Amino acid sequence: MAASSSSSSSSSYSSVFVIATLLIVLLMNVGPSSAQLTEDYYKKTCPKVFDTVESAVKSAIKKEKRMGASLIRLHFHDCFVQGCDASVLLDDTSSFTGEKTAAPNNNSIRGFNVVDDIKSKVESVCPGVVSCADILAIAARDSVSILGGPEWDVKVGRRDSKTASLAAANSGVIPPPTSTLNNLVNRFQARGLSTKDMVALSGAHTIGQARCSLFRTRIYNETNIDASFARKRQDNCPRTTGSGDNNLASLDVKSPTFFDNAYYKNLIKKKGLLHSDQILYNGGSTDSLIETYSKKPETFNDDFVTAMIKMGDISPLTGSNGEIRKNCRRAN
User: Fold this and answer.
1) What pLDDT, on the 0 to 100 scale, is given for residue 99?
2) Would you call 77 a catalytic residue per the annotation?
3) DSSP string covering 192-240, please?
4) What is the pLDDT of residue 35?
5) Candidates 66, 73, 75, 77; catalytic one
6) Do domains 49-173 and 181-310 have the same CATH topology?
7) Which residues line the annotated binding site for Ca(2+)?
8) Which CATH architecture does the domain made up of 181-310 adopt?
9) Under CATH, which number does the domain 49-173 receive?
10) Domains in the chain: boundaries
11) pLDDT tens figures, 254-275
């Protein structure tokens, strides 16, 4: 009996040990978690980070109103490829090709010099502490609030990637302006964002501009478009490919430099500039949300904030993963 009891005890101990070991292994293999991001991450190590970033963003937007939209776009294009890790900021080198020349980014994303300036100012107050990934998240929030949109507390604690992926950036994870509604829904769901999140985040097109080459087909060939709106856009966007490709038009015809809910009102009037804008109000499943946001700016603001926070939570590098870059354009 004593031997049996000892064996049973040993067996139980072994089982507990195995289970504990498995739990430890599982915990070690869990990917970087957004739960590790906190609003007060820099409270002790860089208490001036938010004021420093906001001041630099204000200065940049004062020089060029369009820059606010560009900074928001950088954060979006960063988070959808590899997660919010500042991979989008890495320059090409002789041995490395980054994401800047990927189809969704080439001649599209901009604002890198502004990010450099913000990073320089942050480094002057807290050297080697604040990541470029966090700077993108904070600058996006500041751009929204400075241009009249909602404010929110940004979760921080992300670290920077040491590499980027041209292939991933080109893989379709960033939905193109020709997207169908299903493609938009699927691309956002693949990043853990709901249809509501997608429609709310699309509202960032209440500011910013697009190149003629991205909306030419819509203004000449599509029928779900206000005729006078199309004619006005055609004045600065010739039908012939290669002619005026880089001519710009505001995404929001009503208040292009103010963050509001006019984007949704435009869609109801069939004045969405991009195909992927107007497809959100075209007899499909998102029509009711568009109508809600067009009538209730507070609801739009609330849902936009929720979606921005969720987007900022996409696969961040935390803990000992990644690094804090000294220069946002290259790994240390």
Assistant:
1) 97
2) yes
3) T--HHHHHHHHGGGGS-EEEHHHHHHHHHH-SSS-HHHHHHHHTTS-SS
4) 47
5) 77
6) no
7) 78, 81, 83, 85, 87, 99, 206, 252, 260
8) Orthogonal Bundle (1.10)
9) 1.10.520.10
10) 49-173, 181-310
11) 999 999 999 999 999 999 999 9
